[in-house]
Write a structure and sequence with these properties.
homodimer, 14% strand, five-stranded parallel β-sheet
Chain lengths: 649, 649
Amino acid sequence: MSNTYDIKLVPLAEFQRVRGAEIDKYAKLQLLADMCRANTLATVKRAGSGHLGSSLSSLDIVTLLYNLEMNTVKLGVKHPDRDIYFSSKGHDAPGFYAVLYSLGLLGEEKLINLRRLGGTHGHPDVSIPGIEANSGSLGMGISKAKGMAIAKTINGWKGNVFVMTGDGELQEGQIWESLQTAMHQKITNINVIVDYNKIQTDKPVKNIIDLGDLENKFEAFGWYVERCDGHNFAELESVFARFKMIKDRPKALIADTIKGKGISFMEGPESLKKSSGLYQWHSGAPDDESFELGYAELTEKINAQLAKLKMPSLASKTIETREKGRVKLKDVAEKVVTAYGEALVEIAKERKDIIVLDADLASDCGLRPFEYAFPDRFIENGIAEQDMVSAAGGLALQGFLPIVNSFGVFLASRANEQIYTNATERTKIIYVCHYAGVIPAGPGKSHQSLRDISLFNALPNCTIIEPCNAIETKAALEWCVIEAKENCMMRLAISPSPRTITLPDNYDFSCGKGSILKHGKDAVIIGYGPVMLNEALKAAELLEVKGFSLKVINMPWLNKTDAVWLEKAIGNCPAVYVLENHAPRGGLGDSLLNVIIASKTLRTKQFTKFAIEGYPACGTPFETLKYHKLDGDSVADRISRGGKIKPAG
Amino acid sequence: MSNTYDIKLVPLAEFQRVRGAEIDKYAKLQLLADMCRANTLATVKRAGSGHLGSSLSSLDIVTLLYNLEMNTVKLGVKHPDRDIYFSSKGHDAPGFYAVLYSLGLLGEEKLINLRRLGGTHGHPDVSIPGIEANSGSLGMGISKAKGMAIAKTINGWKGNVFVMTGDGELQEGQIWESLQTAMHQKITNINVIVDYNKIQTDKPVKNIIDLGDLENKFEAFGWYVERCDGHNFAELESVFARFKMIKDRPKALIADTIKGKGISFMEGPESLKKSSGLYQWHSGAPDDESFELGYAELTEKINAQLAKLKMPSLASKTIETREKGRVKLKDVAEKVVTAYGEALVEIAKERKDIIVLDADLASDCGLRPFEYAFPDRFIENGIAEQDMVSAAGGLALQGFLPIVNSFGVFLASRANEQIYTNATERTKIIYVCHYAGVIPAGPGKSHQSLRDISLFNALPNCTIIEPCNAIETKAALEWCVIEAKENCMMRLAISPSPRTITLPDNYDFSCGKGSILKHGKDAVIIGYGPVMLNEALKAAELLEVKGFSLKVINMPWLNKTDAVWLEKAIGNCPAVYVLENHAPRGGLGDSLLNVIIASKTLRTKQFTKFAIEGYPACGTPFETLKYHKLDGDSVADRISRGGKIKPAG
């Protein structure tokens, strides 16, 4: 057996060959879709992550839309009268990029560099021609499509707006706002397609939050609704033909699809049986063996079909040859989220008042151990963050201590007003903002949480903490549960750091006080969390070689500072750098400034924030940190120049 | 005709008399409800504002719940097995306070001091015994009730949770999230009552965003639904009796009610005919004549009923005698929102790309002139802020310049993630956060917007501006439309200031630069907006008398500062005060600190922020500013003591 494997691409010429062939139109669509499936699998494998399951479930529909239904390719992606398509869920971007490539709308370099700097984003971004809207955060698409459809009407532009939603996505309230307003506003040039593959992140929709009778729901909101097999081109074509006849209301297609369609062992719901009921192919790249198996299955199917049509076999090209079994950081390094999940189980044994709430990210948020240990105190709320947060408010009013989990970008932002209202009730709730910060950068700015500190910071009764390693995570959770008198927000990195941050032996986790990780006298850098503290330590090591002694401080308290401790910790260092894993505004730096300006000894020191300027880049951790000049090298360089360099972002 | 009028109260003893009478139970409920109506009208008149329309429409239901249906009074408002009631809309608080008073649960001093410091809040607050949840921001109630109902189930506590919603409120997406999750989570101890009075802020629901077939919608979400006349006690009683029999799903009552019920000229939809289709009694207090007319009608009806039952007439007591025709500040002083509305019409004549979006606050946001002038470019989106913001995103992607309006507390917070996603698309949208700041303080913390600057501030491409008078408002809007290259957030006070702020003659509205309103040398105070600049000027005048020369600067640019201008503007003043109409974190002060710390001349000056510490108080403008030590007197006092005093808040 070979020690390497090839990642191959179906080149554009092959798509042109098939598109030009005189064959049955549905057979052609099937071939094109399966060739896009092969490219989707290849690019996700190359990227190391990406949403395969829903790319594969929606691919037949997108292929049909662009090749048969819509005028977009013919008119061009900037023409006012074009049909507009975009995916509201956005997770299916790898599949969509494959379709754009197959049409000659996306270059090969872009396609193969999925989730890489300068390549394509993990979720859609309008900087790529053919992408009509940014998405990836769920539930916004129909509303946005409404705006586009209204614009067409006002301008007298032709064309329809097609928007694809997920099924789990229908748990978001904004969907129902938009269904209600679209009907009232008589928006008739809009077609919604629900990719009803019936599995959300990693469990069946009916087990997370059942959608009930979806056709009935859409009809109750006044929409014209059809339902068909989302993998049957003939059925799809006839549905869209009927949609054209309906001119008095918005239209929705509930498309029954199969998650992972086209690769047998990825297809739901069958594949769930082999994996304890958890779907394995939602967002990660397949291991080497699964990749080779899946790719072979796809190409065999394509070649069999080509043979049947008496056409030559597929001519793929190799874009990369890789060694097998590369070790991944995330499989070996310490992860704070794992420590959090374990600590949660431990503390919940004592504290019967703890209730854990999840919004369909239980695996990513480390909640499965709690779910299995305390099923009666675990509330799965589906992708409905606002409802989850207000329900937590009700639980807190009745004496429970709710611990509310989601990715920071969703929890802090979408449920912000609900968090505020709960906080005004003076109960105590712990909010855990997972996936905090810029890394991993592959999923892109819909997932990178860089505003969460600022979004919690103006609450008068909330303490914000980001721990840097497993020990501190456990201490932070205990502090939040046992010591805190008010609401807490814990910010947790989802990615491991290449180095486990080592805390001082005698470290006491005490409100407002951080810890010195490395002594130094020429300047001090203050950071938080495993990712940035690693870069700070790397910078210190690089500077040490050059004879510059940089002190490194871990400051997990992001909005509480003990002024006496800070003065002492900074000491005689003449320059203070704050390394944010956050936007420049509203993070730790601004919080510290309030203490620094009040201190006669501190306010005369040079003060510099290093933060994620502009929108976060999409790429590997290294690429992204480098781009923002926040990697150890760049930080060392900026400090040695006196912190004066503006980052490129 | 008398020059004065009396505000009277139906005292508790009268409620006890009626409750103890041996009369038909429905006749008794009607009497109790109408007596509560009288007290509601009296307290709203005394407060000068309050939501009469929906208090009156929901009062019969609340009266029935507390007197007949629920065990809450019997068991006590802290008993675990009690039935729990709260209003999700919260606007109907005056009516609810009247019911609590009638049951002996709320003291007279509290009742008559509606919207006053130390009295009752404009929207519900759990600090008052009997109030189960904070509300007033719409759409959260069913979710919160869910949390309470789950808590009852986990703890094995008896009792049901009753939650009242409005009808316009059903436009909020969170409602549908909660209907969906409640069914899936099998929450059976919950009863939702929709106060279906069919008029939202000031227009019929069917004209804002039609709800369609509401029963069908609730049923499509799996709920058990009944519908009845919400003013018919017998029907209500039998519905709740049937609800008790339904043990496998959550239950909803669509109660057909009449907005303003009980005062003939306030009753919708009839009263709309006399007022150009706009409902007049949603949130303001009636004028003196209407008050006397309405109060007489109510007491006559009550007395007629008492007479029929052979009971003595009502014994009301006078709580205040007032002069008629008091002049109100809001009727005479300059309002920036009026200037905004006029400027919008002017600029839209030139700029055909402007589209104005509203979320059912068109009158309060000064949008009616635009709506009437450009009906095709005005989008009424109902109470669905998230949908509105994403639709604006779609319009911007298609080349329009959307101007999005709502109260700041709703727009900046509830639609935060949608604003972020739009901003990542690098289009330009203008968000107008109305009702910015702490004044008016009567509606309470669900409406006072004190976090909006911080909620927009971490966006990399958004300029935040608060103008201080009509001239600056026009200049700000023009700058946003014509000059700005990125997104803008305009923050507008809804209340007038007792003084019109006068800008310097040669004032040039230029990004990052404010203006000096009063020269001085001993210290400088930097503020923004009409309300706080008035207090700053008042403080300067008071200090002047004492020989302390305070410079007053207007700084409308809340997140952009021209460093050279700031150094020059502060000049030799040794102390810098920032007067925030915002929470202490994330406002203008933090923004300025970033410039100040980088300036060798500025960073050594004493720096102090005066901000709204803690949650904002509810009261009159004077009471509230005084409470937070942000009125001119307190500001002068704090400055003369070197800014060292902590506010009480």
